[in-house]
Amino acid sequence: MKKEKAIEIITRCAKLYNDNLVNRNFLFVFTPVNKDSKDIQYLESLFLPKHFLHLTGVHINREGNNRKSNSSDFYRMCLNGKLSPNKFELRRDGTTELKLNVLTDAMNIHKIPKMVGDFDNSKSTLVTDKIIGTIRICVGFVRDSNAKKFYVPNTVLQEDTKKMVYKPYARVLGIFSKDVKDKVYTSYTYLAKDITIDDIITNDELKNIISLNK
User: Is 117:166 a contact under the CB 8 Å cutoff?
Assistant: First the structure.
């Protein structure tokens, strides 16, 4: 992939990240794919400006005037349409192109995922904890080093989620959203077709963190 094409994709996705994900928490509610199980589980995620770089798969070129650039600077550069070929490098192993092929879809990770699971370590070069996605794309999440109750995105993969996680994987029932400054989740972005809000809010923990706008 030529850098000009990469810039086109990254710049477009930075705007989508800004519109959909940045400075927000998303609550993923799920249950193991087991007909005998009604175990409702969940994880909370956090999307900040600095996380966008990891999803693109590129390296910042820190030579010369870019030596002090960081991941947040990179995001602002992309958002402002100032990303140029000399400011980043594609990975030589081809993984950058694979990520960019599905990066646009990944900007809708708060709306499209059907499955979630623990990463099965099937890829020796990949370090992540949770995998959330579809049969075509998925996003990897790791525990945030500062706010350990949250998982943060650290990779995008052009893979079937089921093939990346330990069995059984879990089915996503619903996804809830809030601003990082808010204490409770006030809206939802996804709800499985046969699921109601009452099906999801089945325990005190979820009741305490979900308060939908009427």
Answer: yes
